[in-house]
Structure formats: structure tokens, C-alpha cells
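User: Predict the full complex structure for these chains.
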Amino acid sequence: AQSVTQLDSHVSVSEGTPVLLRCNYSSSYSPSLFWYVQHPNKGLQLLLKYTSAATLVKGINGFEAEFKKSETSFHLTKPSAHMSDAAEYFCVVSERGYSTLTFGKGTMLLVSP
Amino acid sequence: GAVVSQHPSRVICKSGTSVKIECRSLDFQATTMFWYRQFPKQSLMLMATSNEGSKATYEQGVEKDKFLINHASLTLSTLTVTSAHPEDSSFYICSARDLKAVSSYEQYFGPGTRLTVT
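Assistant: Here is the predicted structure of the two-chain assembly.
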């Protein structure tokens, strides 16, 4: 069975400071992992994905994530936050052989000037 | 590429009426489409998986007679909320998997439909 735990429901940062959104997963087999962002009343936009290639994955808008199998983690980072990064972020897992996605509960990123 | 549209983006209907929401893959073919429901400040909950030309598979607890799903072509799936009630008010999001990229398990999401039942 697959599951995802996003460790923080809210993260607050100042503009220009680093962002860290934490995600741990559980999967019986080799997982595919994704980070999606959702702005208010909008659909989901894919930030990046891990599908068993390089463990350090670079995404859009300066975000990146590192797959750490030993820690079952897939944390999302960005060196310098922008005001436009304020949104809800979802960590998502899909297990090989399963067509469905399992979503974390989401982390709201708040960026202050 | 990989664009999914939904129509309408917002709909308000009266209690007891039915509402149809369309989900289209605009530049790819999708044998599988998914319907999600999202309550305010919560995560997405998978309602059902629809495969082109066959009956949808509903998640536990989702009423198949209330949420009718039709996937008649490789680019269109519809969700009909029948006899809508205020508790059906929610944000409905569809997604689709590219027929040519099924091994990646990636889903492309539509912009969502805000349903309000009065």
C-alpha cells in the first residue's frame, strides 16, 4: 500500500529565504513521486517528478527535490522564496502497478515581505 | 502540451437538479481519466477512475448512482451530479493520463469546477 505524509500543514517564510517542505512516503515497490502546487481556486500544476532516474530532481520555478530511499523522503526545496510561491503544495506518490495517485494532506506555504 | 480543460469553471444550481461537468484532454489521448473532489482547505479525494469505453470504477463510499461518469471517447469524460444537494457543493477536479506515457503514472490536471448547490 502507498501513503504520503506531509509533515507540516503550514510553513511560513520571508521573501528571499530558503523554502523546505517535507514529505515522507510509504510504498511497497519502487514509487513515482510528484510535487504539485495549487493556487487558490485553481487546478494543480506539476512542479517536478521522480520516476527512478536521478535522485535529485529539478523542477519549474527554481524548485527541486531529492529522493532519499533510506529515509523514505522526498522533500521540496527552493533557495529563495518569492511572493508568488505562496500556495498549497501537495506531495503525491504512485506505486508501480497502480494507476492511482495518493495525495498528501498538503502544506500551505506563506511568504511574507 | 498535455492540457486538460474543464467546463464549466463555476456552476450554481438549485437543490434537486442535475449538473454535468466536462473534462477534455486537448492535445493528447487519454484512455484513463480520474475525478477528484476537494473540500475547502483539504486534499484531493479520488472519486472514480474512468476508462474509455467501459464502466467507471468508484472509490469506496462514492455513490455511483449519484455521480454518473461517462468516458465515451479518448478525449472526453463527463461527471454528472444527479439530484444535487447542498452537501455536494465542492471543487471537482479531473485528470487524465496520456495514452502514450502510461508508464510514467503522471496525471495531467484540469483547472477544476466549483459547484455550488443552493
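The two ends of chain A are 41 Å apart (CA to CA).
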